[in-house]
Design brief:
By secondary structure, this protein is α+β, with helices and mostly antiparallel strands. Helices cover 55% and strands 9% of the residues. A hairpin with a 5-residue loop joins strand 7 and strand 8.
Length: 758
């Protein structure tokens, strides 16, 4: 690979002292896009030599051959073995796997507490918000790609960064030191960074979405006029020859000779720690022209609210530029293993190739070996001299084994080295070694999850921001998240009251190792009989997730929240059935009244539709609707008017109440009409009053009887549910015992097989 030469020396970064006034510049150290472009170029030049080194490591992982093909042709060595056998590539894939497995195996990314409601409500709201936040993030189309790209970059080079393009957007971008530049001798903690710049290529459509809603764009900090001017500068761009890593990318993509590329706009992000302690985020064109495309001045109190740094260790001196990744650690060893393996194959090819000696020039000109079907005819004057035996097994194989051991110590690819002179491994050995090789140390995984915790906290802070602009990109997902929380009974006040600083991240079992996670769940399954029903269900789900995946485990053993109806919803549906039969339902003060009203409104709406479609008679349906409607009204009295669902439910009840009142008036008119037709006389006022009193007393007595009957029915149903639960627990226990017996039998069989093989 041909790398570019050293550019000119960098210029100085913006000072904190105004050269004209001598005053301290509290804010706006970078005053315009031209200054921002100058800062980026200065930092780029300072990072040039390191970029060359990263490009060589990247070439090794990308599969570049160990020898220069042009140099081999020039020196007459074009025929020798020149192959990259993928030691570095496989090592990189192996070290990335535990991080990807750790993220994929987590059912809920973390616990999101809220300060709204009583203690029980806080716990309930927290669980629902946590589940829906995880669901929202996993449903993001770019989530898996972004996470895998992040893991790839920081494990390979030692550091990678995530950032968000404005103050509202919850989605992040991933970049490494190729495009993100910061001053040298900066501590590897993002809050110690003074200034960060990043070169980004944006599609015109991507930029246009930022300003499509001009009011929301201006509120977020975007300059629509400057963005439109930048879009007009969009163009196809060839690889930058001054950037070693970009040059290597062009070789990897095989596009160094083509001019067909995406039409993009090159912009530069700048994050500046101001003297007054705030952080300013600016975006300008790469050419330094025009006004800032985006500017958010002094809104953030720390750099960690804007950028998250993922580090592969702490480096040799704690600085960002001292960090080295897995690919760098094993670069020299993998290069030497490729060289030695190529030499090994050259020797093997030489030993397997017959040497022919001609006695004269005529014999050279003539065809010395003439094939005749399955035979070869050798011309006269041709001999096969005996060549001396080269004992390359005594030289190359020990050298390869030595480099292999060193490579294994510096990387996570011990079992991918050549097994020369050794018996092949069986499938079980390979699987075990794969799992063990993919296991990272606790320290490395702790650093990863600490950074992931900061990213997740910023994600939650943004989606729970009540001032999120409705026209801003990403609002549709935020709105869906809030709707799902509302449908599950979480008031908006609980979302506004989320305590971001108290968020706890879930790291999962095994630190990303499938082997360790399975061992842990197997150990828990051995004591599953000692757990209660909830513990057994959780243990079974964890076991199935470790041996299959999370989604399949959720299908086999669904979690109660979100997939099974909550208890209040079950009770509300049972109340609907009782009231449809003419029996009253009792209201308890500790019930979730929001869920109850929603369930009652659902059955009322269904009955109203049946009435409108003339599927039922008014005499049959109006009394049922009236009982349910009055019951729902009693629940409404216990819902706070500040609840966002209160006005919605109130309007629905009013509309249904009009239907019930009109239906009741119609039935009374029909009854009076029928009585008049039968010649019945109207009762006297006194008699009417007495009859009303009697009817009221009878109704009270009837209600008491219905209440007692309902209590008996509820107790009976509860008893039946307990019996059914016991039966289910017994069946589950039996199934688990059977499963454990099968596992033990399989282990015994495998152990016996190993002993037999030994």
């Amino acid at each position: 690979m041909q790398l570019s030469s050293q550019p000119n020396n960098p210029s100085a970064l913006p000072a904190i002292i105004d050269s004209d006034t001598g005053e301290i510049v509290m804010r706006n150290r970078i005053k315009n896009p031209s200054s921002l472009a100058s800062v980026f170029n200065s930092l780029f030049i300072a990072d040039f030599n390191a970029s060359r080194s990263r490009a060589m490591v990247q070439a090794e992982v990308d599969g570049a051959p160990p020898f220069s093909e042009a140099r081999d042709r020039m020196h007459g060595l074009a025929g020798r073995t020149n192959v990259n056998f993928g030691y570095a590539t496989q090592s990189q894939q192996t070290v990335e796997e535990p991080y990807n497995q750790a993220i994929e195996s987590i059912d809920s990314f973390g616990t999101i507490p809220t300060d709204y409601g009583d203690e029980q409500e806080k716990l309930t709201y927290s669980d629902i918000i946590s589940e829906e936040a995880t669901r929202m993030l996993k449903n993001w189309d770019d989530f898996n790609f972004s996470m895998q790209l992040l893991v790839h970059q920081f494990t390979m080079f030692g550091v990678a960064f995530t950032f968000r393009e404005d103050q509202f957007d919850w989605r992040w971008k991933v970049y490494d030191l190729q495009y993100l530049k910061l001053p040298r001798r900066t501590r590897a903690t993002i809050n110690d960074v003074d200034m960060v710049t990043c070169k980004v290529e944006m599609l015109p459509s991507e930029l246009w979405k930022k300003i499509e809603n001009r009011e929301a764009a201006i509120e977020a900090g975007w300059n629509p006029d400057a963005v439109e001017a930048a879009i007009k500068t969009a163009m196809q761009r060839s690889p930058d020859a001054s950037n070693p890593q970009e040059t290597q990318e062009s070789y990897k993509d095989q596009d160094q000779f083509t001019g067909l590329s995406a039409t993009t706009v090159q912009v530069i992000h700048g994050w500046v720690a101001e003297v007054d302690g705030t952080i300013t985020h600016i975006i300008g064109r790469y050419d330094g022209q025009g006004d800032f495309l985006y500017k958010c001045e002094g809104l953030y109190g720390s750099m960690s609210q804007l950028i998250t740094a993922y580090t592969y260790g702490v480096g040799s001196n704690g600085d960002f530029y001292s960090l080295r990744g897995n690919a760098w650690n094993g670069h020299n060893c993998s290069l030497m293993m490729n060289l030695l393996t190529c030499k090994f194959l050259d020797q093997a090819i030489f030993a397997a190739t017959p040497t022919i000696q001609a006695s004269s020039e005529d014999a050279v000109i003539d065809q010395m070996i003439q094939p005749r079907g399955p035979y070869n005819v050798v011309t006269q004057g041709t001999t096969f001299p005996e060549m001396p035996h080269v004992p390359f097994k005594d030289s190359l194989i020990p050298a390869i084994s030595t480099i292999q051991q060193i490579f294994s110590m510096r990387t996570s690819a011990a079992h991918f080295s050549p097994q020369m002179g050794k018996s092949p491994k069986n499938q079980e050995q390979v699987m075990t070694e794969n799992a063990l090789a993919g296991s990272n140390g606790a320290a490395g995984m702790t650093l990863f999850f600490q950074s992931w915790k900061n990213d997740y906290k910023e994600f939650v802070r943004r989606i729970c921001n009540k001032n999120y602009p409705s026209g801003h990109p990403g609002y549709a997902e935020v709105l869906e998240f809030r709707k799902r929380c509302l449908r599950r009974g979480v008031p908006m006040e609980a979302i506004w009251a989320v305590d971001v600083n108290a968020i706890q991240i879930n790291q999962g079992l095994g630190k990303g190792s499938v082997f360790e996670r399975r061992n842990a769940t197997n150990a828990v399954m051995g004591v599953i009989d000692r757990l209660d029903t909830d513990g057994q269900q959780f243990a079974l789900r964890s076991y199935l997730a470790a041996h299959t995946d999370v989604e399949y485990a959720n299908l086999l053993v669904p979690k109660q929240p979100g997939q099974r109806p909550p208890m209040d919803l079950q009770i509300a549906n049972m109340e609907n059935s009782l009231m449809s039969l003419g029996q009253q339902a009792v209201i308890e003060p500790n019930q979730n009244h929001v869920i109850h009203v929603g369930a009652h409104l659902q059955i009322l709406t269904q009955l109203d539709q049946q009435l409108a479609q003339m599927q039922v008679t008014m005499e049959e349906i109006i009394p049922k609707m009236q009982m349910i409607w009055e019951h729902a009204g009693q629940h409404m009295q216990m819902i706070a008017p500040s609840n966002p669902l209160f006005p919605v439910y109130k309007e629905q009840l009013q509309q249904l109440g009009e239907v019930i009142i009109n239906g009741t008036k119609h039935l009374e008119a029909e009854q009076r009409k029928a009585a008049k037709a039968a010649g019945q006389e109207a009762e006297s006022p006194m008699l009417s009053t007495d009859r009303q009193a009697v009817d009221a007393a009878a109704r009270i007595a009837m209600l008491d009887e219905r209440k007692k009957s309902m209590e008996l029915d509820f107790a009976r149903q509860k008893h039946e549910q307990q019996l059914a639960q016991k039966d289910a627990d017994f069946a589950q226990k039996t199934a688990m015992n059977t499963l454990n017996m099968r596992l033990k039998a399989n282990e015994a069989a495998q152990k016996a097989q190993k002993q037999t093989a030994a």
